[in-house]
């Protein structure tokens, strides 16, 4: 009861809605950085994953790297980056740089693995049939493999999105802005309203992302495939 | 001997099916998987359940160890209704062999064989001894195989271990569901012979499922032919099945070559043998000629002093005077032992391009002659093979 | 870039924090495994309960870790309970999936043979199914251990009394000292790798039947792409 009233009170306080550390600013910061990082991660990793899935070349290396990437703990990744980024920039090197770099590094594996696996799992007979009908390789990838693999590929992006949002939250430990600030500052100040305000905001953000990608997946998936659509691997957002 | 072992009743058990019916979907009144099945398997006999795929063989078998419960009817083992017994205890007294072997991958071969003895609480040392003894019985070297894991064995070796495991607690009854179905024909033949050899010593009651009619005829003392809908088409010894199929279905199932199949069940000793006209080297030729002219069969058989055959004289080539000489006799016909099957005997006659073979006893003495005509006559449905006791 | 002298001076503190790290992780893993095993058994016996159980565990898994730790602070304070509950929750999806997959992987013919030979239900579970599920269960334990050891660093948010090797990350940040941050981070990763290696050994010891390469001709090597 205490938590609920305090949280409502925190949301009701106009002071928390204005300025650089207000809810809108933090939310914009969080969503903005996450979106940019995710876009960057997709742009870099997705083509690689699709190419590996189509050609089967470099499979072991990619899967190995991706598994390693999934296993490493977020906070440790940030920590290891600090000595390097701190050399480049003594101020941002402790905050923004390690956070964004970690977001990129940790988003990549799920995109890569699902892109690879999605394409790889497409029935080889289908590909042979397309080749037999005179499709070029890029046409096979674009018109046959990708549409069939789309649910799985998109599942990877969905996981990466949750990972990115979670990592951005953890960035607050390193002085990074975003919604994680409410959590870290709330704990430091023993401010229940602020903590749970942050909890509600991050949870809502993750939930919107999950729902958004689920809806997108349904829009983009061919109706013929919908019945047996594969579900995405759950994101390792915890670590 | 410990009391628990005697309780197993190491002698063979009698199995009775009494109007057994199984329907998987309870409400329906359809044909069901097994329909009003009744037969009796006497103790110590191998009864083979054979029939096309889906006719209810496995279902029938699994009702005996209560992995499946019948919808109606009773199954009795040694006169006792099994539905009154504790299924767990019942299963420990019945050996069970399946096609996929079901060996435990996490246990060594020795441990696998001792599974039921362990469940029964035998001391460890006896479990070990029993496992080694059984490996020997199924023809595997105990020292080599005992500590291996199933993944380190070939398919045929795994099947042997499966049989050994089923024998471990010396059960009076064994259930075998297509035990040799997954191995190649050569290994299968070998395993069949091994099982028959083991059975000759142990004389268990065995219910054996197969869909291969040749295997059924070879292995069974009794064969239950089942047809779709789980009905019993015929229950008879193999020879009778081949001689007098009870229905069109059975006739088709045993195949158009059932005359040939019957020949593989009958042996030379089952035939009425012709007495041969014999003579010894040094005998008077004129006398021999007189005797052979009186016999419808135009060949004289020369035998040595012990009665063992040496060679033939054509009636036309016997000199009118003097004595018979071993050098002039022409080469031998095939020799048959009394247990040679008629199928093998006919094959030997064809290979040697002769019409008659010589049946000899263990000591090599001539018992009589067998002609291709005799074999053909015996293989006809009204021949001696039709006698129920002939093949069993 | 790094201050090696500082590292040499703080080896004792490192040892203490390593022990704490292992302790915090072990508690979470043991409790997590116990709960997941019970849930896994329920899921196996009543198949229909599996989707909701796995689904709930999966949703909890997507909650960012810092959120879960923070959410508990107003309720259970800066306590061991606050540190452990999220660790336990995050193990669930990994453990449950692998336990169920492990039991599912037991071949049907082995189960039939066990029933046919007269194993009672619990005997079969304990002596046949469980041993055969061990490889996948241990695989789950490895993933859960690596993940939990990583998460223990975040318990440093709850103050100096927690965090294990993560303590150095937090202290290093507050002092603007890169060496200390990196030391805590590298230390926790090395710890995860070492524990993983130990668990590989444990699995080999527990499942000797998977060790020898299959000699039988029928056992063809598994498809390299899927292994
Ligand atoms: N668990 C089950 N539930 C429903 N129907 C079953 C079940 N098991 C078997 N049946 C059906 O019962 C019938 C008999 O099956 P059974 O396994 O006894 O055949 P079978 O003679 O052993 O065949 P096969 O030679 O192929 O092994 C089949 O029609 C089968 O589909
Ligand atoms: Mg069957």
In words, what does this structure look like?
The complex is a heterotrimer of chains A (239), B (392) and C (227). With 239 residues, chain A is mainly α. Chain A has a single domain (2-232), classed as MetI-like fold, CATH 1.10.3720.10. Chain A has helices at residues 2-12, 23-55, 59-71, 74-88, 96-120, 124-132, 137-170, 180-188, 192-220. Chain A is elongated, with a radius of gyration of 21 Å. Chain A starts with a helix and ends in a 19-residue tail after the last helix. Residues 228-239 of chain A have low confidence and may be disordered. In chain B, 35% of the residues lie in helices and 21% in strands. Chain B has helices at residues 3-7, 57-64, 87-92, 109-113, 115-119, 124-137, 142-145, 155-167, 185-202, 213-219, 238-243, 248-254, 258-265, 285-294, 342-352, 372-379, 388-391; strands at 15-22, 34-41, 46-50, 72-77, 80-81, 94-98, 173-177, 205-210, 222-227, 231-236, 278-279, 299-303, 309-314, 335-336, 356-360, 366-371. Chain B has a six-stranded mixed sheet, with helices on both faces. In chain B, strands 2-1-4-5 form a four-stranded antiparallel sheet, covered by helices on one side. A three-stranded mixed sheet of chain B has the order 11-12-13, with no helix packed on it. In chain B, helix 15 links the parallel strand 14 (335-336) and strand 15 (356-360). Chain C is mostly helical and 227 residues long. Chain C has one domain: MetI-like fold, CATH 1.10.3720. Chain C has nine helices and no strands. Chain C has helices spanning 4-9, 11-45, 50-62, 65-76, 80-104, 108-116, 121-152, 166-175, 178-206. The longest helix of chain C is centred in the first third of the chain and has 35 residues, at 11-45. In chain C, 45% of the residues are buried. Chains in contact: A-C, B-C. Chains A and C meet through helix 1, helix 4, helix 7, helix 8 and helix 9 of A and helix 3, helix 4, helix 5, helix 7 and helix 8 of C. Magnesium ion is lined by residues 57-58, 177 of chain B.
